[in-house]
Specification:
Blueprint lengths: L1 H15 L15 H14 L1 E6 L4 E6 L8 H12 L3 H27 L3 H29 L1 H5 L1 H36 L2
Helix pairs in contact: 2-3, 4-5, 4-7
Length: about 190
Amino acid sequence: MRITFFFMVLLSFLIVKPGLYPAKYDYDYFSREEMDILANTTKSLGFEYGYDFEINLVYIFTITFNKDDTPEKSKNFKQVLGSIKKEILIKFYQKIYKLREITLYKIERFQDKSLWKNYTYLGKYILPHLNRYMGYFEKEIQAIDPSYMTNAAGRHKELTTEAKKIVKDEEHIEKIRLMEKTRRRRWKI
C-alpha cells in the first residue's frame, strides 16, 4: 500500500515537473501590444507568423510565393498602420529590423557550424519573406516620418549590435545546458 502510494506521488511529480514539456510560446521578444501589431499587419498583407523552438526565432512568412502588391493589400496595411501611434510604429519597425539582423546573424552562425539544414531553412525560406515584410514597413515609415529613415543609419548600427549580443547570449546558454547535460550523464549511475 505504501509502495503504491509512493510510486503514485513520484509519478505525479514527474508528470507535472515544470520544463518537462515545451510551452506553446515562450519567446518574449515581442510585447503583448507588439504581438497585436504583428498579427494585424501580417494579416492585412496576407502574411503569417510563427515561432520555431529549435532555433529560438520568431519568423514571418507568406504561403503565396507570388510577389503581387495589390492595391487592396496596401490599403489594408495603411489602414492598420493608421490606427497606431507614430512612436509605437517606429519602435515596432526597429524590432522587426532587429529580428532581421538576428536572423542574418543566425544564418552566419549556422554556416560557420556547418548546420546546413538550418542555414538553408533561414536563408532560403524565412529571410526573403521577412525582407519583403520589412520592405512594406520601410515604405510606410518613409511616408509617415521621412526624417527617421534619413537618420536611421546610427540606430540601425545599434540594433545590429544588440542582435549579435542576443544570439551570442543564446549560444552561451546553449553551451551551459550542454555542459550540464554532459555532467549529469557522467554522474549517472
